[in-house]
Amino acid sequence: MNILENKTLNRWLTTTNHKDVGLMYFFATLLFGFIGLLLSLLIRIQLYQPNNGTAWLDWAPGDDAGAFYNSMVTMHGAVMVLFFVSPLSFAFANYVVPLQIGAKDMAFPRLNALSFWTFLFGGLVAASGFVFGGAADVGWTFYSPLTSLEYSPGNGVNLAGAGLVLLIISVTASTINFIVTILYHRQKNMDIWDMPMFTWTMLFTVILMLTIFPILLAALLMLVGDRLFETVFFIDENRGSILWGHLFWFFGHPEVYVVLLPELGMLAEIVPVFARKPLYGKRYIIYSLIVGTVLSVIVWVHHMFITGIDPLLREVMSVTTELISIPFAVIMICLIATLYDGKITFPTANLFALGAIGIFVIGGVTGVFLSSAAIDYHLRGTYYLVAHFHYTLGAVTLGVVAAVYYWYPLMFGRILDERLGKLHFWGSFFGTILTMTPLFYLTDMPRRIYVYGANEHELVWGDYHFWATIGAFVVFVAQLIFLYNLIRSYSHGREAGSNPWNGSTQEWGSE
Amino acid sequence: MFGDVNVDGEVHGSIQPFLSALGIALLLAGLLIWPLLPVGLVLVVYSLWNWISEEVNLWPERSSITTGTYPATVIIIIAEALLFGAFFVFWFWAKWHTLYWDSVQSDFSEEVLAGRSWPLQGVDFNLGFVAFNSLLLFVSAYTANQYLKSTESSWLQATIVLGLLFLLGQGYEYYNLYIEGLDQTSSFGTAFFALTGIHGLHVLIGIVALSILFWLVRSDNLSKTSQLPESIVLYWHFVDVIWVLILLVVYLEVI
Amino acid sequence: MKINTIRLFGLLAAVFALVFSNNALACASCIETGTTGVHAEKYDQLMGWYLLIGGIVSLLVYAWFTWLLYKFRASEGSQDPEDAPKLGEIPKHRGDPKWTWFVTVAIFAILMGLTAGTINMVEFYENPEEGWGDGPLTVQVTAHRYYWEFEYPNGNKTYDNLIVPINTIVILEVTTDDVWHNFAVPSLRLKIDAIPHQTNVIWFDAPDVGEYPISCMELCGSDHTDMTGNLILVEPEVYENGIDEDFA
Questions:
Q1: What ipTM was reported for this prediction?
Q2: In the CATH hierarchy, which top-level class contains the domain C137-242?
């Protein structure tokens, strides 16, 4: 039992302190983030020229290049959305929210630790498919009947399902913890309207999570039942495809707002601090968040516009989807308006925040295009869609990285190196644009194909993919710089003092 | 910087969350690799047991546990209600597609469609027995409430026994239906077993929670300010309400 | 270079990059070849409106954003504004409801205008000129892993290549034999899911002879990549003569 007497190990395995849990989330998500990033690089390498051979894919377990490529696409999506961006926000939420509202800790510290460990094991179980004979290769949407035993006999889908169930346990525990903490453990004199924006957005995030993750759990239980216990939830006679579509997208669409909301909160913390002005229209932002949260659960059919679903439903959901852009446009406008009359400085944290706003505008506008049922008829399933959601999620990631620069001094006592940081920013910013902009042109190329170039027209796609691949490498190199910066500044960074950015929220006043 | 292991003199540290998470992970992996299943199960039970015993020792100093339990239970109930909601959705979805999705809208042959029925042909619910079984659950709701009023632990005991009897009754009903030919390989069977099975699982969770409460009361470990009794009773009522919905929808087919 | 020059350069480069990618939105669908048919025409018109308005709105936002960044940048010796964030103080409320309402109503008006176009277009896709009944030509499309099967009114079948006459209303009844597929002809702006035991219908009417690629646009398994085909539009006479012999 020597290992249990190891002090460091023992400390981290047994800790329940919200700061420790936050840090563990931070490191774990960096790990998953790099897994996701490497997968995306492999995808980009495969696509960089037309008629690229599949020799290297053939080394993959299962001797099936297509299946391996599909599993990379699937795991890239699932890992990045569910195990990187969203939990990275929770790293900060764990660390910062209790400090911002003057709570001693989370309401249920042990439950919080359980959240982290189930999340970690969930990610590892889901990704372990790569080691055990092939990860899930059915797309992160898990459309039925492709996921049935008949068409996916391997263990990948089972493992991904088990990983997601663990994630749901984690998320449910977090939900309980954050709602109770935020509503019941604020310091005595803090009115709910006085809560900092990040805490506000976390409140909406967990409320939204509470609404949607039980549905995902139900869908996964049904899927696991079908695969392991011979139930018949998703058989054709029940029109299982459409049923899965409804259940999955009822979860899947709000999930992108679960990813987005904390990032908006981070921007609303960071931009005012570096503009030296109070946030413009805090109340309007909060009202917008309420409207956006409610609307986000009644738009899911826009993922199913071409399934032959009732045209009236398509039109209604088209309208709700277009409407949901209003609250988020208001939030963006308020964030930009915050700059007015300010004294704007540009440390890396603010660069990332402003860059995130800049990139998000394009993601949002293209989202309005896609919200139209008619336009979606043509663009769904193409690289245009891929470019759209990478612009939004890219913006989210930039925003979360802004938070890393912003709160790193709080967590580690030192400021991340500014020179490296700026390299990181410009690399990430231009890299993202270079990767994703060319893909907007490929409105006739299907997603998730790994070879193209059968005819003259398809050869043209190669030019665009070439630049996208270059962009992906720029992003990758920038992230290596980031990693180096994270490690180096831990020991060599400038001492931060207690309030390096002149922030107004309480976490900067704590020890 | 790093969080301290001791915050304000409160000892938070515990290995149990890690062990529980590991146990749950092994349990799930056990669905694929059977030998892991018992390992996971043992680990989960062991760690949760230790978790509770450790918490008991901490309660006098821990205010959050006493003030947060009730809202936490409400949140859990909301999540569970949505979970049941999804299974009810499946019930109606499968029913509709069995009864009304005919060969005009789908391209199934008449034979395939004729083989589907709702409720499944040849399966008759023993409504008298179901009514008796339901009565057990409803009485248990009453006894649970009586416990809250009187704080007599014998009411708790009665509630647990009634809950267990209900589960036994449900097992008996399952056995009879199985003999009649109802299993999970038909849409009706899947929908039926999913709804009632998950409800039964929740009854079981409720019984475990009640038993823990009973043990705490008996060993005099329940602090005066704890919200645990009303939280667990609230959960028990939630399980009851779901059963009423199941009665109306599944057995009486009012919708 | 002075630090401010570098900053200015960075700002300009960033704005340029964003405007460049904005331009990409406006250029969307411009590399597609062989566009044909009445759907494509109407679709491109609607998309044009979306692109125009989306482009103008985002460029306005960028212009305003850039101006703010430039105008209110910190310069040497400039003082913090009076209401600058200060530790431990709840920031004062800032903002004017009338601007928020203005933004909300403006966006709402724009979106509803665009939505009217969308609904119009959905109705167009849903209602072929002569109804869904027995149009001039109805083809059964069945997706398989990993090929397309087309069955013509006379019972003939072709695989991967769909051959139909020009200037005819063609109705496709799309379904699948196994998993979820998606039948797409980008040049004609057509796309419809192929779902097990469900028949989805789609129609088109195209005037130009030629070959237009068909793709499967929903992940359907390991050879999803290979699931391609061609829509071959021919003169009606060629179709009448050929459907029995050459193409079968």
A1: 0.92
A2: mainly beta
